[in-house]
Write a structure and sequence with these properties.
Blueprint lengths: L3 H4 L24 H15 L36 H4 L14 H5 L10 E6 L5 E4 H7 L4 E8 L4 E11 H8 L7 E6 L7 H5 L7 E5 H4 L5 E6 L2 E2 L9 E3 L12 E7 L6 H5 L23 E4 L8 E3 L7 H4 L13
Parallel strand pairs: 1-10, 4-11
Antiparallel strand pairs: 1-2, 3-4, 4-7, 5-6, 5-10, 7-8, 7-9, 11-12
The structure holds ligand MTE.
Ligand MTE binds next to loops.
């Protein structure tokens, strides 16, 4: 398994910040000892000093959390992933490259309170506002249980709190030239050592077509399990696109921009042959280095933890029309 030093030079000749990510190896290849050594190496390489004060999750005190689920998004008969696994097994490369690091590293003084988000680009009503204000403006939050499928072939089921992205789009009023939506994560090298180390093209950036972003399922999450988002899950606001591989769901957003052209997106720029722009969950199109036919259910146990992957992660009915006539092998 790799340390952050390996990110710099190994996989691709095209650029000098090309990583091997933890996505690139099955999790079973990781032993606790390796993880421990990796974290130590990561800290040493990035020049972390002694631990600073732990910080509480983002405060969304003004926003009340719903106590009931939107019945349309209940996922009957599906077991929720335990909260402690959702908040301790994370991909958030700004805070480390192994699953256990974000919980630790993103809670050593990184402040996600009083966070502003900018709505910009080709729209009639651009603005910059506090996340709490945005929540009020869109009429509060609802809860939805969504399947979450990572390109690494593991999955969870998460009860998110938040609001449909479509509500923000209606607020912004994109112009007729707007065809795509760009999602930009935080950039804070002063407080995020990995961003100082410069190994990835920060900030983490993702994109959707405007039609995808307007789909009823596209969601902006501000909480999970009825509590404000933990830093490691993308506090205080993140994208959730449940029919796509998890890397589309950019965390800790500072800007949402309406644009005319398909925006460059982080993993697609780094490894275009492996991580497409569309990234729709598709059991019929394998990753060049592993199968996407099945997934390991996090918390599912050693013997019962594998299940077949569903087309569009089980959301075919809601989203297949977006891709009518499209070659999904080419547009992976
Ligand atoms: N967003 C940012 N800013 N940085 C990241 O490294 N990782 C992505 C996505 N969003 C990532 C990100 C990947 S690969 C996945 S699978 C999901 O976040 C993981 O979300 P979770 O940790 O809440 O399960």
């Amino acid at each position: 398994m790799v340390g952050f030093s390996d990110l710099i030079n190994v996989t691709n000749q095209r650029s000098n910040y090309i990583p091997i990510r933890s996505w690139d190896l099955p999790d079973s290849a990781v032993t606790p000892e390796h993880m421990y050594m990796r974290r130590r190496e990561f800290l040493r390489l990035l020049g972390f000093g002694v631990a600073v004060t732990a910080v509480l999750p983002a405060s969304l005190a003004a926003a009340s959390f719903p106590d009931s689920l939107n019945p349309e998004y209940k996922l009957n008969g599906v077991k929720l992933t335990p909260e402690d696994l959702v908040t301790s097994y994370n991909n958030f490369y700004e805070w480390g490259t192994s699953k256990d690091q974000p919980k630790d590293q993103a809670n050593r003084g990184w402040k996600t309170e009083s966070w502003t988000i900018e709505i910009a680009g080709l729209c009639a009503s651009p603005r910059k506002l506090l996340v709490d204000e945005l929540i009020q403006l869109v009429g509060g939050i609802e809860r939805r249980n969504y399947r979450h499928r990572c390109v690494e072939a593991w999955s969870m089921v998460i009860p998110w709190d938040g609001f449909p992205l479509k509500k923000l789009i209606d607020l912004a009023q994109p112009t007729s030239e707007a065809k795509f939506v760009k999602f930009i994560s935080f950039l804070d090298p002063a407080n995020c050592p990995a961003q100082r180390a410069n190994e990835l093209p920060w900030p983490y950036t993702e994109g959707l077509t405007l039609a995808e972003a307007s789909n009823e399922l596209a969601f902006l999450a501000t909480g999970l399990y009825g509590k404000p988002l933990r830093n490691q899950n993308g506090a205080p606001i993140r994208l959730v696109v449940p029919w796509k591989y998890g890397y589309k769901s950019a965390k800790s957003l500072v800007k949402i921009e309406f644009v005319a052209e398909q925006p460059p997106t982080t993993w697609n720029v780094i490894l275009p042959n492996e991580y497409g722009f569309y990234a729709n969950v598709n059991p019929n199109v394998d990753h060049p280095r592993w199968s996407q036919k099945s997934e390991r259910v996090i918390g599912g146990g050693f013997f019962s933890g594998k299940q077949p992957t569903l087309m569009f992660n089980g959301y075919e009915k809601q989203v297949s029309h977006l891709y009518a006539g499209m070659d999904l092998r080419k547009n992976f």
